[in-house]
Fold these 2 entries.
Entry 1:
Amino acid sequence: MFGDLDAEYGLGLIDEHGVDVPHNLLRAFYWFHRAAPRGSVDAQVALGVMYEVGAGVPLNYARARKWFLLAAARENPTAQVNLGMMDAKAQGVPQNLVKAYTWFDLAQTGSAPGTENYTVTQGAMALLRTHMPPKQIALAQQDAQAWLAAHPRQKAL
């Protein structure tokens, strides 16, 4: 029997951060892993981060990317920023600045001005523009528009 996705994600956060309980990444992973496959976007991002940095689990860029891609398809800007960083830094994939710029463009589109994701994407895109010719930037922007057209808005769980 499965429980409530928000509750499972919340229990994962409590264990991850040690809120009124001992800090326990293994138990946090358990709760996130219960909620993520059933559609909890926040749990998908949390699992992606755990795998990306090796927090409580072995470092695994392929698994991190899998969870970030699932959350990104639900228009989660944090997942999109993380995918952009992975593409820019060649974490588990060959470096691809066009893809990185595309992910940052998508994240910025889905972020409110003044939020952390918006600020991060502005800085990342400005930095990438210093390393990319205008044609590559235009291609990345076209790719972002194509991605949005292919991924109609879905309600995040």
Entry 2:
Amino acid sequence: VKEKTIAARRSDVKVIIFPSANRRDFDELAPNVKEGLEVHFVDNYDQIFDLSFDKEPPTEGQEK
């Protein structure tokens, strides 16, 4: 988890999705490693899908 988080920061990734089982490892990271990241912990693929794709249809003026 530490290596993946550091690699994400180096690549300017702002959002990370981890399995819920990795929450403890992530929580143990130093605050400066976690800073500026939006992190989600999921139990199944449906949660990944919901986070990755907007469920709402686009409103007028938005791309489809």
